[in-house]
């Protein structure tokens, strides 16, 4: 009773609102409440699974996220470069491409290029007139041919002669150099050299005498005769 | 269809073998009430759909800890109300609007909603509700539409009955003024 009074008190303060039919203006998709329990069960099941396996099992390489960050930053910088207007800074002379086309056409098909009903002239450097080179045959005359052969023989013979002369001169120079060495050697040096050779001979003779004495001392006459 | 008593649901839920059955009964019993409670607060059906699922996930997780200090449905209402308030606050932060002003956005949702079949007066009433502060709107909905008692609302919101009565009466007056203002038409 008390609740009813409390619940209806507001109707006195808001008669218009109280006069309105209390109805729910919202609606839901068809069969929504029929499918909602199943949906909730599925969500609860998935949630349980998620809690049961909190770790996904996937791992990433060491320092992966640091590298990833730098890669993303690098790509972003690449993108910002791509967004820049592509202006190379090079430029061509006025009407270059029209002239180029005209010149190509003139060289290939011989046709003139018309731009705005007026022919475009190719530049002088692109002129189609060719300078024909003059051909000169080297041995068109027999006289020149034989003269050339004679000259060749003369030059070759002269070359051989010079070479022979040069060889003789070199030999003479070598002989003279040897003689000069003999003059340059000191006389005493020559004597010492010869005596040095004699010492060797002497020592050789000494060795033979020692051998004779050794044999005579250690072996009898009969041993020597039997061995011989 | 006869509705199962809360005690029976709780008893079945406490047994491992009948836990799923109990939860199924609970969802069937309260899904519509909870859905409409949420829907009136967030307006959009898809948001309400997401929230109702989140609420029942929380119910499933925490029902074993539920002590019968309060009624089961007020406990579920409290979870739903808190989730709605959290959702609306997140929405305000996401759209960078003042915390007490989400009415414009909800109003747009209401007008654009394909799941609203009320007439002009109903539309105007809903617009009037949307200009109310969040808590007054909450109290009005629970009193006017859900016809809960002040004690039950007090249990759900943790607010005194006196404060609830005052808030409800202020809300009613604001709505009456809004509804009688002929300049506002839809």
N-to-C series of helices and strands of chain B: HHHHHHHHH
Poorly predicted parts of chain A: none
Q: What is the CATH C-level name of the largest domain in chain B?
A: Mainly Alpha
**Structural classification of chain A:** mainly alpha
Under the CATH scheme, the architecture of the largest domain in chain B is: Orthogonal Bundle
Quaternary status: heterodimer
Q: What value does the average pLDDT of chain B take?
A: 88
> How many domains make up the 3D coordinates of chain B?
2
CATH superfamily (homologous) name of the largest domain in chain B: RNA polymerase sigma factor, region 2, helix turn helix motif
What gyration radius of chain A follows from the Cα positions, in whole Å?
A: 62 Å
Largest sheet of chain B: none
Gross geometry of chain A: elongated
Give the class of chain B from helix and strand content and strand pairing. mainly alpha
Q: In what order do the strands lie side by side in the largest sheet of chain A? A: 1-2
What characteristics describe this protein?
heterodimer; A: 228 residues; mainly alpha; two-stranded antiparallel sheet; B: 186 residues; Rna Polymerase Sigma Factor, Chain: A; Arc Repressor Mutant, subunit A; 2 domains; 9 helices; 0% strand; globular
Set down the secondary structure blueprint:
The complex is a heterodimer of chains A (228) and B (186).
Chain A: H1 2-13, H2 15-19, H3 32-52, H4 64-83, H5 96-108, E1 113-115, E2 118-120, H6 142-184, H7 187-218, H8 221-227
Antiparallel strand pairs in A: 1-2
Chain B: H1 6-13, H2 19-42, H3 45-62, H4 72-94, H5 103-112, H6 120-130, H7 134-145, H8 150-157, H9 161-180
Helix pairs in contact in B: 1-2, 2-3, 2-4, 3-4, 4-8, 5-6, 6-9, 7-9
